[in-house]
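Entry 14. Ran structure prediction on the chain below.
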Amino acid sequence: MFAGVILTAKWTVNLLVKKKSGNSVHHDRIMQGVSSLVNWAAFYGIIILFLFYFSREKWLFYTLFTAGEVDVTLYLLIVAFLTVSLANRIVKVFTKYVLTSVYEFYGVDRGLGYSFNRMIYYTVMVAALAISLTTVGLDLTAAAAMLGVLGIGIGFGLRNIAGNFISGIIILFERPIEVGEVIEINKKIGKIESIRLRSTIIRTAKEGTLIVPNQYFIEQIIKNRTGSEMLAQVQISVVYGTDTEKVEKLLREAVAMAIPKTKGVLSAPAPDIRFIDFRSNAMNFLIEVPVANSEAKQKFESRLRHGIAASFYKNGIELALTPLLTSE
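Output, structure tokens:
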């Protein structure tokens, strides 16, 4: 009966929240937070009701094992689970629905807000875990000593994981990269979705989701494309002795024909076509055209290569066999 009352109250509150939604983004966010808290309050309320209802049953307090001077029972395990899970839920609701509004009100940068949220989350969860372990009788002093002894062996055996973990902390504090920024990794361009302690999640247009170890961002050179113009680039290597003026003219014609056929090509700045280098028996040309995003970049480069191939074949321009080396 009491469980039915709790569920009825939950459904009633959710119904009222839905009716009051739609006034503003800030108001909707508060209503979503209230709805989430009510759902979890109902969940924990039923569990507490369960504990209260069976509080006189011997099986609930039967000693499963003894830790020091504490007899660990099913009751203590349930309380420990409730402590950790409740802390996890509260801190997520708080950072998502409360701190987000605070950050927007004070104009806090998105990346900095994300770093604050992660630090708050890990701090609360460590504290909740410590409380739950203490509840079931685990001596944290002994546990710390044991972890200290094992730390050396773990450090040698899990160097990469430890390195990625420390790199994640460095990224969150120094913020060389931030959530929402567009970066280039191994010629793949994507947007940073989340920064975790061990890895960073990057969403690309074609390759899907990339899970990159945090240590990579500390040790490697990363191109940050945020705020910079994106360029579609095509490099051409022709045989030495070819009329360079004619090659450049054909390239300009190919660019002019490819632009109207591709969406996302920007009108400014103007396309840039340059004779960039000599390579043994070859001459290298570079074409750069500004585009709006990575999808437009890939489509335009493909379309332009089609046009160049047809134009060169028609005019008898021979491509060099020497491997093309990038020069920017």
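The first strand starts at residue 63 and ends at 67. Will compare against last week's run tomorrow.
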